[in-house]
Structures are given as C-alpha cells and as structure tokens.
C-alpha cells in the first residue's frame, strides 16, 4: 500500500486536477482567517494538495503540531501561520516527490511569514516510532486524507496517542465507508490512490480509536462522496463513502457513554473566528454567554484542554443522573447541524 501511494502521488498525479473522484478534495468553505493564510502559501504547494477536509482546529496559537502525511506542505504552511512564532509544525511524509516540493519552498515561506517554524521529515506514518519524535511532545496532530492509504491504521492511532501531550488531540479528515470494503479492491491502484479502497468502515474506526486510548471520538463534519467516474463507481457499487473530520482527545477519565452529572458550561466568546458560537463537534454548537448542558466527557474535553480559558464551568462530578438519552451507537454521519439553538440535553 505504501508503494502504491508513493507512486500514485509522486508519479501518476502531477496536480489535484488529475484526480478522478472528489474523495481527495476539500469542499468546505474556509474561514476568512484560513483564506488569508492560504493566500500566503506558494502556488506550487497549493497545486499538489490532495486533502479531503479542513484540518484547522481552533485556538492553536503557540501549539506544537504534527502533520501526518504532509505531502507538498499546504496544511503545514497554513497551520504554521496560525500557531505563530511560539508554535511549530512538523510534517511527516513518505513520498519523496511531495517532500521535495515542500522543502523547496521553506525559505520562501519563512520570508513570507517573517519567521521559520516548519520542518519536514521523511518517514512512514505507520512507523512513527522509528522517527526522532519525542513522546508527549505535540499539542495537536493533524492528518488530511492519508490514514486510509496505510495498511496498519491501528499503528497510526497508537502512535498518535503516544506522541500527544495529555489534553492534546488528533484532529483529522479522512474517507470512511458504510461497510467493510472487500479486501481484493486494495489491489486496484486507482481505487487505493483515490482514497477509496483503503477507507475504514466507520465501526472499525470507532473500535481502533478506542483501542488506541481515544475513548470518545467526536465527529466534527461529514459529507457524502460522489463517485463520478463510471469505471471507478462500477467497482464500488453498493458501498457508500463519506469524507469526515474527527477529533480525538487524549484524556483520562472519558467514559464509554455520555453520562449526565448535571454539568454545564458557558462560552466566553474568546476563541478567534468563533466569537459568537464555538463548535466542538457536530452536536455541540455553543453560543457565547449561554448556559449549555454537557455530559461528563464534553466537560473534560473543554476543562482539561487548551479550551479551558474560554469557558466558565458549572457543576462537578459529585452526583450522577444517568446517561443522556439519545447518545447511542447509530451511524454517526449525516447528522451535522450547526444550529446553536438546538441545545437539548439529548445531544450532550
């Protein structure tokens, strides 16, 4: 799988226009801050971008970020501007042609930004332990449509958990399937290179993430994928695919269910770009100044992470009221709702 990914992204594709499906394309409208930062990224780097989502988590100024599968460097150079001079971005990629583009423009970006805080490392994201990356040294790990390309996905999740600081998060976009993709389709270089045949069944993703120590994966955004290439679609008939962004926090104390302790939070409106509404995930659009009921897990994701200064916290864990109703194990996709007026306790 690694060899095919290297060949497809290093030799078959010369730019994003060569893709045959929209699986490796980003459809989300970026914020004004992200658009400004993208304008500062070299055009050759932007031309070789193959991500499927926006991997730009909130409140990352001063953070140390690891980008898994950084490719030609668009996300790395974008995030470098947002973390600023007190932060850093380390990109890891296994495709020499992609890394050559990223490295060729390091000085150009340093001059553009007025500082240099990016480095690139050649390596396999399935074998991160072989690289010179210290445990618990990163605040945030991102990845953009790359984990589907590797064979040992569990190894990636385990390594990410090891490399994150306590309270840190893995924030990543990837392609998922509504059922397990037949193994023989991995042998098709186009299906694999287009991020489809290696896509995880969402239930297997949930299991692997939890086994790695990420006890409560949170879906941020999702969109169904259209397979417009007839030849590709015929080979995948009956399988539905989505592009989804998840956030996985490294936190002790997260529970298997959304438990109700009578807690609530009040957002101060102080996260840049989200002054009116803070979006934790697809079920938590928290309006500034409004008392918002949360489960114990959500409380910890806000109180024990970099988000803590932006919230007031009401209550504690001293009394348990049972599980929040409606927090089950149904298919997670297709439920994204950014309407902040929906604050029912059932969506804890």
UniProtKB/TrEMBL annotation:
Gene3D superfamilies to which the protein is assigned, alphabetical: 3.40.5.100, Vaccinia Virus protein VP39
EC number per UniProt: 2.1.1.137
Keywords of the record: Methyltransferase, S-adenosyl-L-methionine, Transferase
Domain of life (superkingdom): Bacteria
GO molecular-function terms, A-Z: methyltransferase activity
PANTHER family: ARSENITE METHYLTRANSFERASE
This protein's name: Arsenite methyltransferase
Species, as recorded: Aurantiacibacter flavus
Lineage: Bacteria, Pseudomonadati, Pseudomonadota, Alphaproteobacteria, Sphingomonadales
């Amino acid at each position: 799988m690694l060899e095919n990914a290297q060949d497809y992204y290093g030799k078959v594709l010369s730019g994003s226009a060569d893709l045959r499906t929209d699986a490796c394309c980003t459809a989300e409208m970026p914020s004004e801050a992200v658009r400004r930062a993208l304008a500062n990224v070299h055009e050759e780097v932007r031309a070789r971008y193959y991500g499927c989502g926006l991997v730009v988590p909130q409140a990352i100024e001063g953070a140390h970020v690891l980008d898994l599968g950084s490719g030609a460097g668009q996300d790395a150079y974008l995030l470098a501007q947002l973390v600023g001079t007190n932060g850093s971005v380390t990109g890891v990629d296994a495709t020499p042609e992609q890394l050559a583009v990223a490295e060729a423009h390091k000085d150009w970006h340093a001059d553009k930004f007025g500082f240099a805080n990016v480095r690139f490392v050649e390596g396999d994201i399935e074998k991160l332990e072989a690289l010179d990356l210290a445990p618990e040294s990163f605040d945030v790990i991102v990845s953009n449509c790359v984990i589907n390309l590797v064979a040992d996905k569990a190894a990636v999740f385990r390594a990410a958990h090891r490399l994150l600081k306590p309270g840190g998060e893995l924030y990543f976009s990837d392609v998922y399937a509504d059922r397990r993709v037949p193994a023989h389709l991995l042998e098709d270089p186009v299906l694999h290179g287009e991020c489809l045949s290696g896509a995880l069944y969402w239930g297997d993703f949930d299991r692997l993430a939890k086994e790695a120590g990420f006890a409560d994966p949170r879906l941020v955004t999702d969109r169904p994928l259209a397979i417009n290439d007839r030849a590709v679609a015929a080979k995948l008939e009956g399988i539905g695919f989505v592009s989804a962004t998840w956030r996985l926090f490294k936190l002790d104390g997260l529970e298997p269910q959304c438990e109700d302790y009578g807690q609530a939070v009040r957002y101060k409106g102080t996260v840049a770009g989200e002054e009116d509404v803070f979006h934790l995930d697809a079920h938590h659009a928290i309006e500034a100044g409004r008392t918002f009921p949360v489960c114990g897990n959500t409380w910890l994701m806000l109180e024990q992470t970099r988000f803590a200064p932006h919230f007031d916290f009401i209550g504690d864990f001293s009394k348990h009221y049972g599980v929040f109703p409606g927090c089950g194990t149904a298919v997670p996709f297709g439920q994204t709702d950014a309407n902040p007026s929906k604050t029912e306790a059932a969506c804890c």
